[in-house]
Amino acid sequence: NAGVTQTPKFRILKIGQSMTLQCTQDMNHNYMYWYRQDPGMGLKLIYYSVGAGITDKGEVPNGYNVSRSTTEDFPLRLELAAPSQTSVYFCASMGAGELFFGEGSRLTVL
Amino acid sequence: KQEVTQIPAALSVPEGENLVLNCSFTDSAIYNLQWFRQDPGKGLTSLLLIQSSQREQTSGRLNASLDKSSGRSTLYIAASQPGDSATYLCAVIDNDMRFGAGTRLTVKP
Fold first, then answer.
1. Please, are residues B64 and B35 in contact by the beta-carbon 8 Å criterion?
2. How far is A96 from A100, CA to CA, in rounded Å?
3. Rounded average pLDDT over A45-74
4. Best exposed site among A14, A49, A94, B68 by fewest CB in 10 Å?
5. A88 pLDDT exceeds 90?
6. How far apart are CA B98 and CA A35, in angstroms?
């Protein structure tokens, strides 16, 4: 019973590099979300999706892109990484009004 | 736009004390409200989900209540233990989803 799985758990990037954070869920949920959490702060919504082929911006989408080609997968791509993108990233899915979170991906941009 | 506020931001209590964490929201037209726990450097663990038609949910020493008309939810923790030390977040789920900033709880032995 995997739930929401995120990879990688940790990553260090150099400024200007690009990478993709992977998120997959096995609960057949339509709604999926990407959040970032800066130290001592709350969660901020980056992007969300209400189903395969449909994505929309959240509060802080700049510098990120997403795609949703399948129900299961919702990858988050960082283009031209900047130090301001150093954060912990959480993927979540929602089914029957209940949220399920992955364990997070800790990203450092140096 | 829904705004979610959690008070207090931090709370320190001696072991064994009963305590209440508060979550308030500005728009009462919500679907559900969910309480989470987050340990330092870890992900979010779901504690309780209260659906809009419910007034409260209980799990062990935890009891969460929901009063949509007043825009308020409380999380009651009975007989607190040092292992309860964590940050507690509430999430208000409507057409959007908003999180409070959390209450950082420390239970001292």
1. yes
2. 11
3. 95
4. A14
5. yes
6. 11
Give the mean pLDDT of B15-27: 96
- Rounded to 5 degrees, φ, ψ at B64 are -115, 135
pLDDT digits (tens, 9 = 90+) for B51-71: 988 999 999 999 999 999 999
A103 to A65, B9, B101: CA distances (angstroms): 21, 23, 19
User: B72: helix, coil or strand?
Assistant: strand
pLDDT in tens, A54-64: 999 998 999 99
**A15 and A110 in contact (C-beta within 8 Å)?**
yes
Report, in this order, helix, strand and coil percent for chain A, each rounded to 5: 5, 55, 45
Residues 6+ apart with CB under 8 A from B41: none
- Residues of A near B (Cβ–Cβ under 8 Å) read 33, 41-43, 45, 90, 94, 97-104
How long is chain B?
109
* Cα B25 from Cα A19, distance rounded (Å): 36
Mean pLDDT, chain B, integer: 93
Residue A1 pLDDT exceeds 70? no
Mutation target among B44, B51, B88, B90 for the A interface, most CBs of A within 10 A: B44
pLDDT of residue A28: 95
Cβ–Cβ contact B46 with A under 8 A:
yes
Please identify which residue in the block is written with the tokens 């993927």.
A91
Do A45 and B89 lie within an 8 Å CB cutoff? no
